[in-house]
Specification:
CATH topology of one domain in chain A: Aldehyde Oxidoreductase, domain 4
Strand order of the largest sheet of chain A: 3-5-1-13-10-11-12
CATH architecture of one domain in chain A: 2-Layer Sandwich
Largest sheet of chain B: 5 strands, mixed
CATH class of the largest domain in chain B: Alpha Beta
CATH class of one domain in chain A: Alpha Beta
CATH superfamily of one domain in chain A: Aldehyde oxidase/xanthine dehydrogenase, molybdopterin binding domain
Helix content of chain A: 25-40%
CATH architecture of the largest domain in chain B: Roll
Distance between the termini of chain B: 53 Å
Oligomer: heterodimer
Radius of gyration of chain A: 27 Å
Structural class of chain A: alpha+beta
Shape of chain B: globular
Number of domains of chain B: 2
Number of helices of chain A: 20
Structural class of chain B: alpha+beta
Strand content of chain A: 15-25%
Largest sheet of chain A: 7 strands, mixed
Shape of chain A: globular
Number of strands of chain A: 28
Strand order of the largest sheet of chain B: 2-1-5-3-4
Chain lengths: 785, 163
């Protein structure tokens, strides 16, 4: 332990401590884990979107040399279906969750029907071809709106018209009056197409069972190992929580898809217990696409009313949200609370009414995907506001500015059942983005080019989103079935080394680096002396995991609070040694000194050594510096910003070129700018990909047409531009770090930014709206009337 | 079954492989070189790229049996004597990776590209990496990382761009 003054780490763009292993091939991802005696699972999946299983013959598969066993859904009836932990609060939810494998009926293409266990993965795959399943096909519905119509095929007995929940918020009567009496009303049907998260590492599970202790260990590529442990033990298996240890190795991207509990976790555990050997299952890409969760899938009718001078007076929204064949872990909450309660975005809108009808369809389950509800909300409001501006012939920047929530009105209640927006100042972000892109000149250039028959488009998106969803009591009112606090333990070892354990965990966000920066500054110790441990339920305090851009705002704050408790104790111990009053002690620059007598001091290292040995503690003090915090924030945080894109559309080919992408994001205070920029780059790329490329299409028979990376167009490097990132900084008053969250902001700001630009470019052709993705084919047709 | 002798990262291995065994499975399962990853089943993602006899290949579409007498370099073989290769350094310095799953393939593709074109434009870097998918970075910093490495390999002074 050094007593030298350490350079502040917060705000520095240091490179990541996570990287050395990842750039040298020494990462340890799920498929890299090998255990003695390990067997390999392959899954037979339904080729039908809806069918009755009449019989399954596994005899030939079981007889193949190298096959250990074959299991079907009926074998696993002694464990419960997977739980759904977030029904929509305050409404009737018709809940149906999947089993580890289908028993009598399959309800989407890719649902597991049988599992082969073999000595290697290749034999297991070979054996799948030897299983005979007799199906009786049933009628199929894939569209979330058509699913509710009379005569639609019914997926579940307890869900008439395939409705999961009919949810609403806002002021219906006032909104109806506002729309009926408005000078101007624009309306549009807006589809937020189904997407696939596509982490480059697919998902999977490895389970090992120790018969001597009845204990399971599960390695799984998860964003929330403690929650997996809770759900799998208490809800699925009905065993003590202590009988399962969950480890998330290096996780190769998550984007929401790896938050949830999945069938493979269950069957790997169940089979490992049954056969007494470890079981490994890793999805291939087409399995990841077919059977892991998807995102979005909204069909919305929206009306926005206003005055001729650009004042918005009302917003009426009706959304059909497809949740797939069963409910994934938090699906209903995403489609309701995280979407409907923020649908007014950055605007002060006096009358709002929203209905969400969440439905079952014969498709893969839909759940949180990067942004989770907020991208759908910001896309909707930013598209219809642009539509309103076009209708009035007003500049879209001006319409936005005229309707922003004024900075004087924060904390701001949008009337939709959220806690108030914490802080915000929207006009400066818009102004900065307009200045950075050179907006006035661009509009002139656009006019000049149009005269030459070239089609430039400028798209603006001003967004606000919700991060670090909390407090728990509020979330419980929304139907959330557990907590939303986060944990951090900080302890100082005898050598002065700092060990931090947390329930948060990284899968690309660099939180080891960011957390160590925070703790180093808070304690005034060298950055390299701070170790961050995570991702293993053995050795970390219970925590809710990493999603919803919550790691820093919630997990990081827990760390700060633990470090502050450590400092308080260090002051008491120093006061004892220096025979001073604890209230007179100052903790600064790695030293604890007596106020007014800087020569009377102890270094933090000396106190750490003293406390760790613990030979002569003052009365009432325990040895060791070791403090834990379970931090439940008083509110969410609300990052915001304005993005502006410049595109050129080529009518001859229908191609779109993104020429500029300027983002001004206010994510509150920034701990590591390099990491934050990286999060924004990746987030923007995913929103841009939704606007231009990606579409998880099912045909009417429920076949996933975009079932491989040949068909599902996640962009490569030549399909994306450079990003021009800058910030305004409005610290969050919610937490002591003043941070808001940056993991999802880019995605939430970007899809409509590109679509507004594409539609602006196509406006000379009379185009007022186009559904995503804006493919060359759609554009080519649009330019030909 | 085929018996092959392959030099991997400078070390010779003689192994029996099934006729159908892919190079990526041979590297990962038989040689325990798990730095080479599998991200798809249609040869799109490039997480499995390694260098065989000087050329980058997707090891998920290369039969191990075809690599008899070949020399293979994987991500594990890139650093020399404990010194990171300029590409590895570039990816670290420029934040060219987040989750790190695509990174080995991305680096091996860039390695081949820079052999052929030591002074690429940003656009050439983007097109040169078309066979590799990254879901985290949006590629912005990957381009910077490759340019950092290219400059360093040309003997120029380099530093990571400011943010």
């Amino acid at each position: 332990m050094t007593s030298e003054t350490t350079t502040p780490m917060i705000g520095r763009a240091i490179k990541r401590r996570e990287d050395p292993k990842l750039i040298t091939g020494q990462g340890n991802f799920l498929d890299d884990v090998k255990l003695n005696g390990m067997t390999h699972a392959a899954v037979l999946r339904s080729p039908y979107a809806h069918a009755r299983i009449l019989s399954i013959d596994t005899q030939k598969a079981a007889a193949l040399p190298g096959v250990v066993a074959v299991f079907v859904g009926k074998d696993l009836l002694d464990v419960n279906p997977l739980p759904c932990a977030w029904p929509a609060g305050g409404f009737k939810n018709n809940m149906n969750t999947p089993r580890a494998m289908a028993v009598d009926v399959v309800r989407f293409v890719g649902e597991a029907v049988a599992v082969v266990i073999a000595e290697d993965r290749f034999i297991a795959r070979d054996a799948l071809d030897l299983i005979d399943v007799d199906y009786e096909p049933l009628a199929v519905v894939v569209d979330p709106e058509k699913a509710t119509q009379p005569g639609a095929p019914q997926l579940h007995e307890n869900a008439p018209n395939n409705v999961v929940v009919e949810w609403s918020a806002g002021n219906r009567e006032g909104t109806n009056r506002a729309v009926a009496s408005a000078e101007v009303v624009v309306k549009e049907r807006i589809v937020n197409q189904r997407l696939m998260a596509t982490p480059m590492e697919t998902r999977g599970s490895i389970a090992r069972y120790e018969s001597s202790t009845n204990e399971f260990t599960l390695w799984t590529s998860s964003q929330a190992p403690h929650v997996m442990r809770l759900l799998l033990t208490a809800f699925v298996f009905g065993i003590p929580e202590t009988k399962l240890r969950v480890i998330a190795p290096n996780v190769g991207g998550g984007f929401g898809q790896k938050i949830f509990v999945y069938p493979d976790m269950v069957f790997c555990m169940w089979i490992s217990r049954k056969i007494g050997r470890p079981v490994k299952f890793v999805e291939d890409r087409s399995e990841n696409f077919k059977s892991s969760t998807h995102g979005r899938d909204h069909v919305t009718d929206v009306e926005l009313s206003g005055t001729r001078d650009g004042q918005i007076t009302g917003l009426r929204v009706k959304t059909y949200a497809g949740l797939g064949a069963y409910l994934s872990t938090i699906a209903p909450g995403v489609a309701t609370t995280l979407y409907g309660r923020i649908v007014t975005g950055v605007y002060k809108i006096p009358n709002v009414s929203i209905d969400v009808i969440a439905t079952y369809t014969n498709t893969a389950m839909v759940d949180a995907y990067r942004g989770a509800g907020r991208p759908e909300a910001s896309y909707l409001i930013e598209r219809i506001v642009d539509r309103f501006a076009a209708e009035l012939g007003m500049d879209p920047a001006e319409v936005r500015r005229r309707n922003f929530i004024p900075p004087t009105e924060f904390p701001y209640d949008n009337g939709l059942g959220l806690l108030p927006y914490d802080s915000g100042n929207y006009a400066p972000a818009l102004d900065k983005a307009l200045a950075n892109v050179g907006y006035a000149d661009l509009r002139k250039e656009q006019a000049t080019l149009r005269a030459q028959g070239r089609y430039l488009g400028i798209g603006i998106s001003s967004y606000v989103e919700i991060c670090g969803v909390a407090p728990t009591a509020w979330a419980n009112g929304q139907g959330w079935g557990a907590g939303l606090w986060e944990s951090a333990n900080v302890r100082i070892h005898l050598t002065g080394q700092v060990v931090v354990t947390t329930g948060s965990l990284p899968h690309g966000q660099g939180v080891e680096t960011t957390f160590a920066q925070i703790v180093a500054d808070e304690l005034g110790v060298p950055y390299d002396s701070v170790l961050i441990e995570h991702s293993d339920t053995a050795g970390t305090p219970f925590g809710y995991g990493t999603y919803g851009s919550r790691s820093l705002a919630v997990g990081g704050t827990a760390m700060v609070k633990s470090a502050r408790k450590i400092k308080e104790k260090a002051k008491r111990l120093a006061a004892h040694l220096l025979e001073a009053n604890p209230e007179d002690m100052i903790f600064a620059d790695g030293k604890i000194s007596v106020k007014g007598s800087p020569d009377k001091s102890k270094t933090f290292g000396e106190i750490a050594l003293y406390a760790s040995v613990g030979a002569s503690m003052p009365e009432g003090e325990e040895p060791f510096l070791d403090e834990t915090t379970y931090y439940d924030p008083p509110n969410c945080t609300f990052p915001f910003g304005t993005h502006i894109s410049v595109v050129e559309v080529f009518p001859d080919t229908g191609a779109v070129e993104v020429k500029r992408y300027v983002a001004v994001d206010d994510v509150g205070n920034i701990i590591n700018p390099r990491i934050v920029h990286g999060q924004l780059h990746g987030g923007i790329a995913q929103g841009m990909a939704q606007a231009l490329y990606e579409n998880a299409v099912y045909d009417d028979n429920g076949q996933l047409l975009a079932g491989t990376l040949m068909d599902y167009a996640i962009p490569n490097a030549s399909m994306l531009p450079d990003f021009e990132i800058s910030h305004t900084v409005t610290p969050s008053p919610v937490n002591p770090l003043g941070v808001k969250g940056a993991g999802e902001a880019g995605t939430i700001g970007s899809a409509q930014c590109i679509m507004n630009a594409v539609i602006d470019a196509l406006s000379p052709f009379g185009v007022r709206h186009m559904q995503m993705p804006a493919t060359p084919e759609k554009i080519w047709h649009a330019t030909r009337g | 079954m085929a018996r092959i002798t392959v030099t991997v990262n400078g070390k010779s291995h003689t192994s029996d492989v099934e006729d159908r065994t892919l190079l990526v499975h041979y590297l990962r399962e038989q040689l325990n070189l798990t730095g080479t990853h599998i991200g798809c089943d249609t040869s799109q993602c490039g997480a499995c790229v390694v260098v065989v006899d000087g050329n980058s290949v997707k090891s998920c579409t290369t039969l191990a049996a075809r690599c008899d007498h070949a020399s293979v370099t994987t991500i594990e073989g890139l650093a020399q004597d404990g010194n990171l290769h300029p590409l590895q350094e570039g990816f670290w310095e420029c934040h060219g990776l987040q989750c790190g799953f695509c990174t080995p393939g991305m680096i091996m593709s860039a390695y081949d590209m820079l052999q052929q074109n030591p002074n690429p434009t940003d656009d050439e870097v983007r097109h040169g990496l078309e066979g590799n998918l990254c879901r985290c970075t949006g590629y912005h910093n990957i381009v910077r990382a490759v340019q950092y490495a290219a400059a360093k390999m040309r003997g120029e002074e380099v530093s990571a761009p400011n943010v």
